Amino acid sequence: MTGRAHAISLGRVLVTRPQPAGSETAARLVSGGYEPVLLPLSRTIALSFAFPEGPFAALTVTSANAFRHLDMERLKLFLGLPLFAVGQGTAQAARKAGFGHVIDGGGDAVRLAATMQRELPAQARILYLAGRVRQPVFEDEMKAAKLDMHAVDVYDTEAIAYTSAALRNALGDTPFAAVMLYSGVAATSLVAAMREIEPPFDEKTRFLCISARVAGRLPPVWRANALVADHPDEEGLFRLFAKL
């Protein structure tokens, strides 16, 4: 978070990321001199599922949440296969799970699909360990690439509801310097939650959005103060702090 001293000194930052990742983000903010406030707007939960019949040429994962909700014993059968991860964070989680051949797909769904098309033969069978709530972009790209991908929903995302009193207690009165938004679900949930109270956002509060799609979920008055990451990942979000 270079350039912090020229941007905000001890500014409060609202972190809407689900746990446990939210605490990791908070620790990073503290190390940069910011005051994080955690308000997870959703949680991920494990789903019951069965793997489709193999064999598979490769696996792919677009969120580290898949590994948080999988029994590692069930993955042993696949550890020898190449695993294509959407970006660095997911790739790191895959290696921690025991995968030895992990390919970083470049940080977003389009780049991941292009990487897999380049590395795998046409009609290769691929197992996709997915979340139930997801955008169709990746699967559309894979279909266009003529790769035979089989998605398995291993986790779901559900909203966390807060009472007005809980929101006021969590947020306090001091205006936030920034609000970090990692998904469209988070943006929509934040808008709904803030209808219950007078949020501590002012004309200087910036809404740091992981993508333009996320910024588009905000009401006009917030959208006018939105900044969009140059790359749809946490590194892209943290680069936005230099613009505050």
UniProtKB/TrEMBL annotation:
Enzyme class: lyase
Record's protein name: Uroporphyrinogen-III synthase
Swiss-Prot/TrEMBL GO biological process terms: tetrapyrrole biosynthetic process
Every Tetrapyrrole biosynthesis uroporphyrinogen III synthase domain range: 24-238
Assigned EC number: 4.2.1.75
Keyword DNA-binding carried by entry: no
Lyase in keyword set: yes
Pfam family, one: HEM4
